[in-house]
Structures are given as structure tokens and as C-alpha cells.
Write a structure and sequence with these properties.
The chain is mostly beta strands. It contains four helices and 33 strands. The longest helix has 22 residues. It holds the Pfam family DUF7507.
Length: about 475
């Protein structure tokens, strides 16, 4: 096995009844050895017969000779100590008590190796809710020809899972584990040769285990060294959300905000039990100062408008502009923020938002939350600009300033959208055009702060004349 030849032993000269040893030789166990379950080693000793001196020590200089005077052949022997090739009832190699009488023919020394332990883990249910009981099953298979003892099986439960006392069984024999936190340990497990044992136990799904996937992990370790003896085995359980107590549902409407106040005036009174953003306060957003109209014009829902959540969930309003998100989120005890945004490309032509977009509300577990979106048709006040409206140093000409003041006075009472359209000349850089439009927008907002009564929307666009054909 070691591949050693002509290696001297210590002592090198042996008197009758003496023995010598060859120490310090090593062999590295291979994967093939593990698969075979054992390694075999054969050694042969050889020595020249010599005479014995008067003091009883070997006389290496006087070899023994035969009748013709020729030296005797070397004496040799092949190892027959250690074990027989046979195994006992437990699968362990049989030790030879007296090699001289029991060994029979020369045989190799057999060393039984710890074979591969295969650990698998299963669970009887893949989907559960809080309060359920699940059963885990561990299977440990010994693939070697020898028994394996002192195996500690350690099973770590997910957070929120609680072991159900007096349910652990190993091969139909009750055996409680040692419990330390979430770790369950069965110490000193013995797995016989080519044997498979099964461990089962029950676990409660506790309230502190939140929705989602929960992984249970188990592994076998050597009780003496603590080294792993198996790969890690896992089993996954998914806890489903409890719709009444854990989910938060969002409902709402996208409506035609006729009076541009950001509130749905047709909100039914019986809906006031829900958490809502529809409680009226004069001056919402700091821009609207008129009291709520006593007889508001009818406001209707806008159908076919798409709304999107940050995780990509998309919903579309029905024929009445309504939408709902069942179990929109699973907020913790203190709640969680939830965002929803309208894809304004799906609004009717000419409509613009009168409410925040996106909107953020605070969700509470088990509560219904309402968030409405307003949009309306706005008159568009268009301001056409070009480089001629500015001086050489980039300042606005007096005529432009006067025109902006007149514009602000005209749209102060009627919600409108201001669109700045810059006609860029050939070769004029976009950077210069954007800078001039920003200057104009700042002037409009300065004037608006003294006059306007609603949140003004200013749009900006750069327009260029089509390039003339070179042909």
C-alpha cells in the first residue's frame, strides 16, 4: 500500500525472540478508499540468517551456510497479523488473537474506514400558515461496510418555529433531542453497516415567523472532533400571509377632477371607515385657499388608466375608474410606506394630474387603505420663445417680461398648464436653449407666488425646424 522497498528496520540485527519496528510511515486516505469502505495493506519482511555470538547477539559477519557451504537464502514472511478478511456480525473486521495459530494463510491487514453518511431532510407540508404543525423527517444512510458510532445530529429550526415536545422518534423509538435555542441535537447516534435510520419530529409554526420561505438545516458531526460527517440537508416551508390580520389591501379611484381640488367629490359617506387621504382640508398643498364647494359638479372615474407599484405590479382601472390591490403589502406592526404611480401616458388625451404622482401612503397590517388620483383637462397656455426674446447677455427683454406678467394674470383663476416651447435656430446648442427656458420658468414662478391660487404646472420643450434636404 505504501510502496516502500528495501527499508531498514530498527534494530537491524535481531536475536531469536526479538522484534523490530518500522515507524513514521503515512498513507493518505483517498476518495476511492472511502467508497470501498476499507484499505488493505500487505508487508513482507526479509532477512539473512546469521550465526549467534557467544553473548547471544546476532553475528552479522557470519552468515549461516548449507551443506555445500553456500549462504542460506533470506528468511521471508508476509504479514498475517491484524485482522481476518472476514467480518463479525456487526460488520467489523475480525481481530486475530494469535496470528501463529489462528491466522491460517498469510493475509493482509484490513482497516475499516468510516464510509459516506448520506443525510436527507423532508417536510410533510410545503405551504403553511401561522399556528400549523409540520413534521420533519431526517434520513441517515450508512454506505460503508462498518458501523459508525458517535454521530451527533444537529437540526437548526428557522426563527419562529418551535419544537413540539415528546414527538421526536428515531426508528420508532422515542428519543428527545437536546435543545439549545433553535438547535435540536441528538448525540451519539449509531448507524450500523449499510443501515438507514429515520428521525421524525413535529414543529409548531409560531407567530414570530413572518410570511415567506423558511429553511430548516440539519447536519451530522463527529461527536469527538466536531468535524462534519455529512453534507448539510435542508427542507423549505413557505408561510402564506394571513389575509385578515397580516395583509393590507389598497383600493382607490382615478377620477376626473372637475374643480381641480385634488378630492373626489362623489366619495360615498359609507366608505369613511377606511384609512383614506380624502379628508378635506382647505388649502391642500398650500395653494388652494377656497372652501370646499357646497354643490360640487359631478366627478366621474376615468377607465383604462394603468397604475404601477415599485415592484412592477400593474393594474388598470375599471369602467368606473376604480382599482384594488389585494394584499398589496405585508407591513410590520409599525406599518410600512406604500407607493403607487399612474402611467400618465394612459390618461385621456389632454388630461394632466391634479394630485401627487406617485403617491405614498402608510399601510397598517389588516387594514384597508384608500388612495385616489385626480386628473383633469387643463387649458394649455403656450409661450413660444426664441433667441430674439433675450439680450446678448442672456437676459429677458422687457417685452417678454411684460408678456409673462399678463399671462400670469390671465390664468390665475382658471387652472391651466404653461408650456414653454423654444424654437432653436440651426446650430444653436440645446444647453443654451434649456438655460433660457429655466430663466423664463423662474420668472413665471416668481410672479405666480403673488398671484396664483393653485399648483402651476410648467412644461418645457425644445423644437427645431426640420433640416433642409441637400438634394
Amino acid at each position: 500500500l505504501l510502496g516502500l522497498t528495501d527499508v531498514a528496520v530498527t534494530p537491524g540485527d535481531l536475536a531469536p525472540g526479538e522484534s523490530a519496528e518500522l515507524l513514521g510511515q503515512t498513507y493518505v486516505i483517498t476518495a476511492a478508499d472511502i467508497a470501498a469502505g476499507q484499505v488493505e495493506n500487505t508487508a513482507e519482511a526479509a532477512g539473512a540468517p546469521v550465526a549467534t555470538a557467544a553473548d547471544g547477539t546476532p553475528d552479522a559477519g557470519t552468515p549461516l551456510v548449507d551443506g555445500t557451504g553456500a549462504p542460506l537464502a533470506d528468511a521471508t514472511d508476509t504479514s498475517d497479523t491484524g485482522t481476518e478478511p472476514a467480518l463479525d456480525a456487526d460488520g467489523n473486521p475480525v481481530t486475530i488473537a494469535d496470528p501463529a495459530t489462528d491466522g491460517g494463510v498469510d493475509d493482509p491487514t484490513i482497516l475499516g474506514l468510516p464510509g459516506d453518511l448520506i443525510l436527507t431532510k423532508t417536510v410533510n407540508r410545503s405551504s403553511v400558515v401561522v399556528g400549523d404543525v409540520v413534521t420533519y423527517t431526517l434520513t441517515i444512510q450508512n454506505g460503508s461496510t462498518g458501523a459508525l458510532a458517535n454521530i451527533d445530529i444537529v437540526d437548526t429550526l428557522p426563527t419562529g418555529f418551535v419544537y413540539r415536545a415528546s414527538t421526536a422518534v428515531i426508528d420508532e423509538v422515542a428519543r428527545e433531542p437536546e435543545i439549545a435555542g433553535q438547535a435540536l441535537t441528538w448525540p451519539g447516534v449509531v448507524v450500523g453497516a449499510a443501515e438507514t435510520i429515520t428521525v421524525t419530529y413535529d414543529v409548531y409554526v409560531g407567530n414570530s415567523a413572518g410570511p415567506g420561505d423558511h429553511v430548516n438545516r440539519a447536519q451530522g458531526f463527529d461527536a469527538l472532533t466536531g468535524a462534519p460527517r455529512t453534507d448539510e440537508a435542508t427542507a423549505t416551508v413557505r408561510i402564506e400571509a394571513e389575509p385578515v390580520f397580516q395583509c393590507s389591501t389598497v383600493i382607490g379611484r382615478v377620477f376626473d377632477d372637475v374643480n381641480h381640488d385634488g378630492y373626489f367629490n362623489e366619495e360615498p359617506q359609507e366608505d369613511r371607515m377606511a384609512i383614506t387621504d380624502q379628508t378635506y382640508y382647505g388649502g391642500k398643498g398650500g395653494k388652494w385657499f377656497e372652501p370646499e364647494p357646497s354643490e360640487p359638479r359631478q366627478e366621474v372615474g376615468l377607465p383604462g388608466v394603468r397604475l404601477v407599484t415599485p415592484n412592477g405590479t400593474a393594474i388598470t382601472t375599471d369602467e368606473h375608474g376604480r382599482f384594488s390591490l389585494a394584499c398589496a403589502d405585508l407591513p410590520r406592526d409599525i406599518g410600512a410606506n406604500f407607493m403607487l404611480k399612474i402611467d400618465d401616458r394612459t390618461l385621456p388625451v389632454g388630461y394632466r394630474m391634479t394630485t401627487e404622482n406617485p403617491r405614498v401612503v402608510r399601510l397598517t397590517p389588516g387594514m384597508l387603505t384608500k388612495m385616489n388620483f385626480g386628473a383633469s383637462m387643463f387649458p394649455v397656455a403656450r409661450v413660444d420663445l426664441s433667441a430674439r426674446a433675450f439680450t446678448n447677455d442672456g437676459e429677458m427683454r422687457p417685452e417678454l417680461r411684460a408678456g409673462l406678467q399678463s399671462l400670469v394674470n390671465q390664468i390665475a383663476a382658471t387652472p391651466s398648464v404653461v408650456r414653454l416651447g423654444y424654437q432653436a435656430a440651426s446650430g444653436e446648442a440645446d444647453r443654451a436653449a434649456r438655460s433660457r427656458m429655466r430663466r423664463v420658468e423662474r420668472e413665471i414662478r416668481r410672479l405666480w407666488s403673488d398671484t396664483g391660487r393653485y399648483a402651476l404646472t410648467v412644461e418645457r420643450v425644445i423644437e427645431r425646424a426640420p433640416q433642409a434636404s441637400s438634394q
